[in-house]
Amino acid sequence: MFYDLDLTLGKYLTIEYLSITKWEISLEEILTKNSFIIISAIIAGFFSYTSLIVSKENKVSEFRQEWINSLRNSISSYVSSLCYISMLYKHRSGQTEEKKDKFNMTRDIEDIYSKMNESYNDIIFRINDKEVNTNGNEIN
Fold first, then answer.
1. What total of structural domains would you count in the chain?
2. How many CA atoms lie within 13 A of 122 on its CB side?
3. For the whole model, what pTM was predicted?
4. Which domain holds residue 106?
5. Which site in 26, 94, 95, 98 is 20 to 30 Å from 42, CA atoms measured?
6. What pLDDT score was predicted for residue 121?
């Protein structure tokens, strides 16, 4: 079976089968018969595009939530280190001169000070100091 397609510039698409039989199919007939397929493809494309946008927004939200959680952890670590150092200093200040040993205080405070310094730098790196929002600049 050999089909010879002859496309004309007119309104009809002509299909010839071994130059014996001719069928003429109008463009309106093709669109009418395939309109369900075309509409289904358009609707599927719309839902696909909408799904792409929603998934992108969800991923951005996940990244923001992760950033907020890590910033909260850094702030809580920083504040707890400051509280510990403050209580240690008050405790050492209340001791008599005989019991005060600066070497012991330095040894006790070394790890906490390192943790506090790390948390402080983590907070500074996470906050944008060139924020456009003026309220954000005042807080920073």
1. 1
2. 19
3. 0.55
4. 3-128
5. 26
6. 92
